[in-house]
Write a structure and sequence with these properties.
By secondary structure, the protein is α+β, with helices and mostly antiparallel strands. It contains one helix and four strands, in the order αββββ.
């Protein structure tokens, strides 16, 4: 939902964000050499909210 809202606003303002990337739930994304981030579903009053599982060399962190 947020991705589509940002694209809509970009069109209205005739602006672009060159590094805009749509993440998919439960699909890991490699960030640099040491970090892997996996968005996962969370229950929230905001539609389409996700938490993040952040894998690092020193351990796994969960951000909700």
């Amino acid at each position: 939902m947020a991705f589509e809202l940002i694209k809509l606003k970009q069109g209205e303002m005739k602006a672009t964000l060159p590094k805009l990337f749509e993440y998919k739930r439960n699909v890991p994304v490699q960030i640099g050499k040491y970090f892997q981030i996996t968005p996962f579903t969370v229950d929230h009053s905001i539609p389409d909210s996700v938490g993040l599982c952040i894998e690092t060399p020193v351990g796994r962190f969960i951000h909700t």
